[in-house]
Fold this protein.
Amino acid sequence: MKVDFWFSENQNEDVKFGVRVKSHLFSKESKYQKIDIFDTEFFGRVMILDGCFMITEKDEFMYQEMLSHPAMVSHHDPKDILIIGGGDGGVAREVLRYPVRAVDLVEIDEEVISAAKTYLPSIAASFADSRLKVYNMDAFEFVDSERSYDVILVDSTDPIGFAASLFSDVFYMKSKKILKKGGIIATQSGSPFMNPEFIKKAYRGLNSHFMTVKPYLSFVPSYPSGMWSYIMASDGSIEKRRDFTGRYVNEGIYLSCFNLPEFVKKVLESQ
Amino acid sequence: MKVDFWFSENQNEDVKFGVRVKSHLFSKESKYQKIDIFDTEFFGRVMILDGCFMITEKDEFMYQEMLSHPAMVSHHDPKDILIIGGGDGGVAREVLRYPVRAVDLVEIDEEVISAAKTYLPSIAASFADSRLKVYNMDAFEFVDSERSYDVILVDSTDPIGFAASLFSDVFYMKSKKILKKGGIIATQSGSPFMNPEFIKKAYRGLNSHFMTVKPYLSFVPSYPSGMWSYIMASDGSIEKRRDFTGRYVNEGIYLSCFNLPEFVKKVLESQ
């Protein structure tokens, strides 16, 4: 018998999304946030940070693939990769499917990595790959480094609290400095339906530092509104150079994800 | 001050979606279903049938436009249109933007139309158009008619209860008979993520009666998973012949909506 045991995310003040829970596997207040892992009936295991869905076993592939592969198939030769956030290991898993040389993952909260390793082992399996190096520090500081990268993937929480600096003008300027020639940065930019200010701010910021800026969308059912946005930016061109077919991405998706509904175009054009 | 007053849809046994309510404007048990109208904080006014979101003022344009325009821009000269269901008037509103000759709307439940006229007047404004004729009867019977159509749009509730016949093999056969040469039928087919059996069944049924069958997707935040599917079918070709830009649809959307994520392709290919 299923019991009446639910976790709900308040997607905003007036909308909530609830899932039936089988068991509450883990709960910890880290230095940065509250981390919870639930086993749920429909979405499998889910990781919740400060009350918001980060990962569900059932639909994580949609987000991880769409943050990673459009940049990876567009770069002429992606060898050195920087992942900002991504402590669950999912974006690293996608990136490591390519013949990359090195992946640096900068996750401020080591407790997220530790929880993922214990409770989401298939997603966190990437941490065993010798090409991956983890830095537990603030990415805003890390990007002052002397290193340089072909692709930077910003898999952070939303721009509130400690992650706000990762969507600032200064962060985009610093990121540009550590991108090699032809390098591409891709960032998640929230739901244009629930939170249009977020994508507008990221789009404006990237536009003021990069020649080519391409916003795109995917479905992610467990995220607010199910409509999620990302932005790629580069000082070179961004064109598909190879194919990679996953559980979400394929040739058609690479071609079509940049075609935005009219109201999303209007959000981006508005001041 | 906002009060703790919520309506939640049980999207399935294990997932629910809740919206904060300002007031409960209308509630009636019709001959066919329970009809509720709420005024909500985030989505504006919403119409709920048997506990499920049918229409919200905030995102209805996404569904109405995506059910209507792909067929309307693909037909060589859409003059005579049949709408099955659509008692809120939204699909009729989209179709009447074209120089059509006549629109027949077959809504089994006249109480839905009456509630829409009273509480969703901007959506139901199409009922005042002299080209529109309403039939309150079972569409499954209606399609035995002697009339014939250029475009048939199936805007029904999901295939349970009294609407199940509208996704049956016999219904598709009957529809084909009343389509003129080059005619196009488009139907909603649910969420491939939450309810893959629904789109599979509709796809299989349409494939066994029509030469050209094209499934496509759009975002609809208030529907389960936010990922909604539709299928167009015809014995002729289905290619874009004109443009219409709305709040959701535009040239890019017409080109890209047929590019399905890999897992949706797999759902359709599976037996």
About this structure: The first helix of chain B runs from residue 60 to 74. The mean pLDDT of chain B is 96. Chain B touches chain A through 46 residues (CB under 8 Å).
